[in-house]
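Data availability (excerpt). The following record was deposited with the supplementary files.
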Amino acid sequence: MTEHAATPRRGDHPAAHAPGPQTTETMTGAQSLIRSLEAVGADTVFGIPGGAILPAYDPLMDSTKVRHILVRHEQGAGHAATGYAQATGRVGVCMATSGPGATNLVTPIADAYMDSVPIVAITGQVASKAIGTDAFQEADICGITMPITKHNYLVTDPAEIPRVIAEAFHIAATGRPGPVLVDIAKDALQAQTVFRWPVETALPGYRPVTKPHAKQIREAAKLLVNAKRPVLYVGGGVLKANAGAELRILAELTGAPVVTTLMAIGVFPDSHPQHLGMPGMHGSVPAVTALQKTDLLFTLGARFDDRVTGKLDSFAPHAKVVHADIDPAEIGKNRPADVPIVGDAREVLADLIVAVQAEFDAGHRGDYTEWWTRLNEWKKTYPVGYEPAPEGRLSPQQVIERIGRLVGPDAIYAAGVGQHQMWASQFIQFEKPATWLNSGGAGTMGYAVPAAMGAKAGKPDVPVWAIDGDGCFQMTNQELTTCTLNNLPIKVAVINNGSLGMVRQWQTLFYNQRYSNTVLHSGPGHDGIEPPAQGTRIPDFVLLSEAMGAVGLRCERPEDLDAVIKQAMEINDRPVVIDFIVHQDAMVWPMVAAGTSNDEIQFARGVRPDFGDDLD
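Predicted structure:
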C-alpha cells in the first residue's frame, strides 16, 4: 500500500470506525458487501452487472439506501464516480464485472489517481480456485491497477468484506485522496458469512500526518514577510482540503498575489483583485510571468506539474521555495524546497496565518508595492482575450463566455480535454470551490459527459453543464441515455469545430498546417480547412442526442447564441445538447510551447510580451 500523509477530509466515513453496538448477522458475501456500502454512507453506485459481480446485484436490488445507476460503458461509471466525488466531496463508487468490465475501468482509475480523487472501484473476479488459470473473463485487475491506485485488495474470504470496504473508503478519502480498488472473487460473494459492523480496521502502515511542523511554519512565515516578490502558487490540494477560506485569509493578510492551477480553479475567486489567474502552458501572462519573476514561490498543495513549469530548469529561476503538501513524496520530487512542510493544507494555512500575524506583531511586514505595480501593469497590458470570428461565424470563446455569464457561478461545469477545456478555464468566471470539474493530470478525452452525470447525481438541485468538444463527445456520449433514464438532466455544450481542435492547433503551429487525421466531420480527401456543406455532418449531434432521449439544439449564428442558451436553461426534465458550430481556426492563447521555458510565453501567435526589464 502506498502511504500518503494527511487528515480526514471531505468524504471520510467515520461510520466505519465509530464505536457502538455491533450488528452481527449471517448472510452471503454479496449481502455483506451491500450492507457494508450502506454502513459507510455510500448512496450512489455507477456500474454494469456481469457474471462475476452478478451475485452482488441481487441484494443491491433490495437496498433502500444505495441507488444504482446503470451506465452504458464502464468508463462512464468510473468518470461518473469521479464527477460525483469532485462535486460532493464524498467518495465516488463504481462497480463492474471481471475481465473486460474491470479493464474498462482502468482509464477512469488512472484519471482519478492523477487528480487525487477519492473513488472506490468494486470489481467481481472469477472464483478463487480459477484465479491464475486464464479462466473466462479473468484479468489480474489488482496487478494491472497497482501503479494507479492508492491501494487495492483481492478478497477471497467473505468474512473480510466489511473490513476491506471500511478500509477502502477510509484510505480513499483521507490523506492525499485517491482511488482504491476492491476485487472480490465470485465464490466469496456467494458463500455464507457473518456480517459484523462496526469493524476494526488494520492499517499499520497508514499513518497520515496532518499537523505541520511548527518550526517549518515559522521559517515559511519569515520568508514570506521578507520577500519582495512572493507568489502563492495554489494547487488542487488546497481545494481538496476545503481550505478556501483559510487561503483567502492568508492572501488578504499578506497582500501576496495568488495563482491557481487548473485543478485549483474556484478555490480562490476569479474576481478577487489579488488573483492573477492560472499558470502554465495556457495560463494567463500575469500568472506565468509572476512565477518566472518571483523571489519566493510559496507552494500550497501543488506538485510542480510539467504543464505549469514548462522547461523545469528554467522555472522560477530567482525563487526560494516553500512547498507544503499532504504527500511527502511530492516535496522535492521536481523542485528542491528551501522550506518543506508536510501536512494537511487546511492546517498548514491555519498555522501560517497565526505565524504571519506573529511576524507582523514583531514589526516584520513585507512591502509588495513595487511588485504589485508591475503585476498590475501586466494584468492591464496582457488580459486574456480572443480574436473575433469571421463575419457571421461563432467564436468558441464567445460561446463559452456567454454560457458562463448566463448560467452563472453557482452552476457546476465539467469540461472535456483540449481547446474547449482551456477556453472554459479562461472565459468562465469561477467564484466557488467544487464548481469546476476536469481531467487535469491524465487529460482524458470523454471525461465531461459522464463526470457531469456523476455531479448531477450527487448535486441534483444544482445546474450542471458539460463543456465538451466534438471529439470528446463522440467517445462517451452514450451516457446521455443513462442521464435520460435516470432523471439526470445535464446540459451539454458541444464546441463543434469539426476537428480534434488542440491537435489541429499543434499541426498548424508545428507541422506546417498538415492536418493529418484530425478532421472529424467528413471522410478521406477533406483537408478540414473549410467546413462541410449544410446537412452533411456525420454524425448529426442533434439527431444523435434526440435518439437518446435528450433535447437536441443547434446554434450556428452569433445573433442566436443567447436565445439558444436560455432555451436550454429552461428545459429541466431531460438532458439538453447544444451543437455549437464554431469556426475551425480559433486557437488557445496565451501559450508556452511544450518543452520550452515559460520565459518564451506567447500572448498571441508571434507576439511575445515585452516586460521591459533585463530578464526578458
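Summary of structural features: The chain has three domains: 23-197, 214-382, 396-581.
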